[in-house]
């Protein structure tokens, strides 16, 4: 009987790409992959450490696995596993914890433990390197999990933002080779996947002059140009990119691109320069205005998403209102709002001016309300236009959903023939749930 393995991913697109790559290594060794709520011999949890909530969810996910199969082997990998390996190993039911450099050898560690009849079930064996040793690159991409694929092009970060643990969890900034990225993109295209999302920790840093002991020949702009030439990929989407690394040349290239879509997600974190300095961000809000203006100048229909943190130490009511008003006046499309949570071993965790959690929650609610207003205004601005929709694979309450190239979410009555297909759609009406709804007569084959 083949052993069965199941995966659960917390956190970002990068984690999803790495989970998928790890899952393929199991399949290559003869394991059957099953859903996490099914009976499996091995459960793998890819962890996140960005927020306190992601930390807390880990225990409940372990319990979920144990409920399905109390005798199963449970392994933890990912950022939280690198930062606090012993803490995870001490969770009841966890058998193995692997850090940043070990996670891609998960099958070897598991086979070794499974072959040991004397192993102590639930003992929580830890294999975790010092993060300074995470100086090599492992390429990854997700496939088969979604209509679109997440393609990892970069890992690690050299920035020292005072609230962030990612450099401690993933190490220095390093990039995949151009040849490897293009090879992976072609493999994805061969699987009839229509859209690729580029992902990494700091993808605008791709191909920086040096990392570790290796020199890199290419820039992010070079990468974008080469990917745009890969046949078989209908859409390419840039995930989160720092405003100081999003250059005019890249924006111009996207505006004229064959495959890159007019959608950018650009972290802001605060609309107040004093707070940006305390965060050790590498720009002031004026640069952010410049980036948004440039995008809208060459792509008026572009969708722009924004990351923002509320409740950072020292953020007064005045600072927050400045951020709120700044975002309110910007020509952006939606917000991802993060409530600041203290992370061990970060500079921000010991700063003065701690904001009460009730105040953080109130500010978060205000910005989520602003996000809904911004998204609605953006959707309304798109009504009357014809956009191309890529349909997803899920039947949600009798509807099939999809996204336009500029990230407008649409729905229409469920039709399995539409799954993973591209169609031109006239955007005519916003439904009660905030999505754009249309009927089949407005559907044009792409």
UniProtKB/TrEMBL annotation:
PROSITE patterns attached here?
Answer: MTTASE_N, MTTASE_RADICAL, RADICAL_SAM
The family classification in the record reads: Belongs to the methylthiotransferase family. MtaB subfamily.
Domain of life, source organism? Bacteria
What cofactor does this protein call for? [4Fe-4S] cluster
**What Gene Ontology cellular-component terms does the record carry?**
cytosol
Which gene codes for it? mtaB
User: Radical SAM core domain: which residues?
Assistant: 143-377
Q: Which organism is it from?
A: Gelidibacter salicanalis
Entry keyword Ribosomal protein:
no
One Pfam family from the record: Radical_SAM
Q: Which molecular function terms from Gene Ontology are attached?
A: 4 iron, 4 sulfur cluster binding; metal ion binding; tRNA (N(6)-L-threonylcarbamoyladenosine(37)-C(2))-methylthiotransferase activity; tRNA-2-methylthio-N(6)-dimethylallyladenosine(37) synthase activity
What the entry lists under InterPro entries is as follows: Elp3/MiaA/NifB-like_rSAM (IPR006638), Methylthiotransferase (IPR005839), Methylthiotransferase_CS (IPR020612), Methylthiotransferase_N (IPR013848), Methylthiotransferase_N_sf (IPR038135), MiaB-like_bact (IPR006467), rSAM (IPR007197), rSAM_horseshoe (IPR023404)
Ranges for domain MTTase N-terminal: 3-115
Identification of the protein by name: Threonylcarbamoyladenosine tRNA methylthiotransferase MtaB
- Which Gene3D superfamilies does the UniProt record give? Methylthiotransferase, N-terminal domain, tm_1862 like domain
Q: Give the reactions, separated by semicolons, that this protein catalyses.
A: N(6)-L-threonylcarbamoyladenosine(37) in tRNA + (sulfur carrier)-SH + AH2 + 2 S-adenosyl-L-methionine = 2-methylsulfanyl-N(6)-L-threonylcarbamoyladenosine(37) in tRNA + (sulfur carrier)-H + 5'-deoxyadenosine + L-methionine + A + S-adenosyl-L-homocysteine + 2 H(+)
The UniProt record lists the keyword DNA repair = no
SMART domains associated with the record: Elp3
Q: Which UniProt keywords are listed? A: 4Fe-4S, Cytoplasm, Iron, Iron-sulfur, Metal-binding, S-adenosyl-L-methionine, Transferase, tRNA processing
């Amino acid at each position: 009987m083949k052993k069965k393995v199941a995966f659960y991913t917390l956190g970002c697109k990068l984690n999803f790409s790495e989970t998928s790559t790890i899952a393929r290594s199991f399949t290559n060794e003869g394991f059957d992959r099953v859903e996490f709520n099914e009976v499996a011999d091995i459960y793998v949890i890819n962890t996140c450490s960005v927020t306190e909530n992601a930390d807390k969810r880990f225990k409940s996910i372990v319990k979920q696995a144990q409920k399905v199969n109390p005798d199963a082997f449970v392994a933890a990998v990912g950022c939280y596993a690198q930062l606090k390996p012993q803490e995870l190993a001490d969770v009841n039911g966890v058998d193995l914890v692997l850090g940043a450099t070990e996670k891609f050898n998960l099958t070897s560690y598991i086979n070794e433990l499974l072959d040991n009849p004397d192993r102590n079930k639930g003992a929580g064996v830890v294999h975790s390197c010092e993060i300074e040793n995470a100086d090599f690159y492992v390429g990854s991409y997700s496939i088969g999990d979604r209509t679109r694929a997440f393609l990892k092009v970069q890992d690690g970060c050299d920035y020292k933002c005072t609230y962030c643990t990612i450099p401690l969890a993933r190490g220095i900034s390093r990039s995949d080779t151009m040849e490897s990225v293009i090879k992976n993109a072609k493999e994805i295209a061969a699987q009839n996947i229509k859209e690729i999302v580029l992902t990494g920790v700091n993808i605008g840093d791709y191909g920086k002059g040096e990392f570790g002991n290796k020199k890199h020949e290419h820039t992010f702009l070079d990468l974008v140009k080469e990917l745009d030439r890969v046949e078989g990929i209908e859409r390419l989407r840039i995930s989160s990119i720092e405003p100081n690394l999003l250059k005019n040349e890249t924006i111009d290239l996207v505006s004229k691109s064959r495959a890159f879509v007019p959608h950018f997600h650009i972290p802001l974190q605060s609309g107040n320069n004093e707070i940006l300095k305390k965060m050790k961000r590498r720009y002031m809000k004026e640069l952010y205005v410049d980036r948004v203006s440039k995008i809208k100048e060459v792509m008026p229909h572009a969708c722009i998403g924004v990351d923002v943190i509320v409740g950072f130490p020292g953020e007064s009511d005045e600072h927050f209102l400045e951020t709120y008003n700044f975002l309110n006046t910007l020509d952006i499309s939606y917000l991802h709002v993060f409530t600041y949570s203290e992370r061990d071993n970060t500079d921000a965790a010991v700063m003065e001016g701690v904001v009460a959690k009730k105040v953080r929650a109130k500010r978060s609610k205000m910005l989520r309300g602003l996000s809904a207003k911004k998204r609605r205004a953006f959707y309304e601005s798109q009504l009357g236009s014809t956009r191309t929709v890529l349909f997803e694979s899920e039947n949600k309450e009798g509807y099939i959903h999809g996204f336009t190239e500029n990230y407008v979410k649409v729905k229409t009555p469920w039709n399995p023939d539409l799954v993973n297909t591209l169609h031109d759609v006239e955007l005519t009406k916003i439904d009660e749930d905030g999505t754009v709804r249309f009927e089949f007569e407005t559907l044009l084959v792409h």
